[in-house]
Design brief:
Nucleoside Triphosphate Pyrophosphohydrolase; 368 residues; alpha/beta; 2 domains; 12 helices; 6-stranded mixed sheet
Length: 368
C-alpha cells in the first residue's frame, strides 16, 4: 500500500492568518483553488484505489479537485480533522495558553502533558489515537490511496509509522498542498517523500511533456548488463525513444549499440513510472537541452535474457561500453543501489523501482 498524503490548499482563513483547527471551517481561497488544481495535475496519472479526506471544507474541496481525475468517490473521515484546540482556538496566544494549561493540569491530575485536553477541545494523545485508528483501518488496501488532511494531522503520520519519534514528528514542515509519500511493504512503513511542493514551484514546466525513455534489465546467468559510471551510479542499457519508435525496438537498439547485447526471446514489461526532474537535474549541455524541452522521464522498464555479447559499436553521440565492464552480479547491483544516499527525494521512487525489478530477477533465479 502506498499513501499519497496531501495537506489541503490555502484556505480563506489561512489567507488572513487566522488559525482554524476544527472550530473555524472555511473553504479554499482563490490561491488555494489553484494549488488544488496543481496537486491534482501532479497525481492524475497515479492508479488510485481510494481517496480519503477530512470532512472539513478546506480538505474536502482539495480532495474534490484531485478526484476529478479518478473515478472514485471521496470517503470523508472525521479522524483526519485538524487538532482541536477547543476554546483556545481563536485566542491570539493560544499555544502559550495551551502549554501553561498542559503543565498545570498534568501536575494536578498526575498525567502526561499530551494527555491533557484544552477546554472544549482534545488532547494530543486523542489526536494521535484517531490517526492510528484511521491508519489501521486503511491497511486493507494493497494499492495506492490518496489521503487529504491537515498540517498537524499529517505530522502525526510520520510518528505513528515509525519514521520519526513522537516528540520530533511535529518538526516536519507541511505547506499547502504538499505531497508526502508513505509506503507499507511486508508490515513495515517507509516514508519516501515529505513536504514536496514541486508542483507549485514551476507551473510552466509542468505543462511540458514527459520524455519517453526505456531501461533494460538484461540477464546473463547470475549477472545483469550494467556498469558503474563516473557520476557514482549504475547505468543500465536504455535511453530515449524516438518519435513513433516502438519502445521494445528502441531498447533492443540501445542495448546493442551501447553494450553489444543480442537478446534471446521477447522483452518482458516490468512497469512504468514517471519522474519529474528536480531543478538541479541537468549536469551537462545535453541534459540542459532536454530540461528545456521535457519536465521529466516516463521510464518503461523491461526484463530480458541475453543470448550473446559482441563488441559495442556505440552511436553518433556516445561510444560503446567497455567490454570488460558491462556485466555486474545482480546481488552487487542491489547492494550498490540500496546504498545510494545522495540523490534528490524526487528521484527516490525511480531507484526504489530499480530495486524491485532487480529483486524480481533474484527471485526468478532462485526458483530455477
Amino acid at each position: 500500500m502506498k499513501i499519497f498524503l496531501v495537506r489541503h490548499g490555502e484556505s480563506e482563513a489561512n489567507e488572513k492568518g487566522i488559525h482554524q483547527g476544527q472550530r473555524i471551517d472555511t473553504g479554499l481561497s482563490k490561491r488555494g483553488k489553484e494549488q488544488a488544481k496543481l496537486i491534482a495535475e501532479r497525481l492524475k496519472d497515479e492508479k488510485i484505489e481510494a481517496i480519503y479526506s477530512s470532512d472539513l471544507k478546506r480538505a474536502k474541496e482539495t480532495a474534490e479537485e484531485i478526484a476529478k481525475f479518478h473515478k472514485k468517490k471521496i470517503i470523508l473521515d472525521k479522524r483526519l480533522r485538524e487538532f482541536d484546540l477547543g476554546d483556545f482556538t481563536e485566542l491570539e496566544n493560544r499555544w502559550e495558553l495551551m502549554q501553561e494549561h498542559k503543565k498545570k493540569e498534568s501536575e494536578r491530575l498526575g498525567i502526561k502533558r499530551w494527555e491533557v485536553s484544552p477546554p472544549g477541545g482534545e488532547s494530543e494523545w486523542a489526536h494521535i489515537l484517531r490517526v492510528k485508528s484511521f491508519l489501521k483501518d486503511i491497511e486493507q488496501h494493497e494499492g495506492n490511496i490518496i489521503v487529504v488532511a491537515h498540517g498537524g494531522t499529517n505530522r502525526i503520520f510520520f510518528g505513528v509509522t515509525g519514521h520519526t519519534s513522537m516528540e520530533k514528528m511535529y518538526e516536519h514542515k507541511q505547506e499547502n498542498t504538499c505531497l508526502n509519500i508513505i509506503e507499507k511493504n511486508e508490515g513495515d512503513y517507509k516514508v519516501h517523500l515529505i513536504n514536496c511542493t514541486r508542483h507549485l514551484e514551476d507551473k510552466e514546466r509542468l505543462k511540458l511533456p514527459f520524455r519517453k525513455n526505456c531501461e533494460g534489465y538484461l540477464v546473463l546467468g547470475d549477472s545483469v548488463i550494467a556498469r558503474n559510471t563516473e557520476y557514482g551510479y549504475i547505468d543500465f542499457p536504455g535511453g530515449g525513444v524516438e518519435e513513433k519508435e516502438d519502445i521494445k525496438e528502441a531498447l533492443k537498439r540501445e542495448s546493442f549499440e551501447e553494450a553489444g547485447v543480442i537478446l534471446e526471446g521477447e522483452l518482458k514489461e516490468a512497469g512504468v513510472i514517471r519522474t519529474i526532474w528536480p531543478a538541479d537535474w541537468a549536469k551537462n549541455e545535453k541534459q540542459k537541452k532536454r530540461f528545456e524541452k521535457y519536465k521529466g522521464d516516463e521510464m518503461h522498464f523491461f526484463i530480458g535474457k541475453v543470448k550473446d555479447l559482441v563488441e559495442p559499436k556505440g552511436d553518433s553521440e556516445e561510444k560503446g561500453w567497455d567490454v570488460n565492464e558491462r556485466l555486474m552480479k545482480i546481488s552487487d547491483a542491489i547492494k550498490t543501489i540500496g546504498g545510494y544516499r545522495h540523490f534528490p527525494k524526487e528521484l527516490e521512487e525511480y531507484y526504489e523501482f530499480k530495486l524491485k525489478v532487480l529483486g524480481k530477477l533474484i527471485n526468478a533465479g532462485e526458483e530455477k
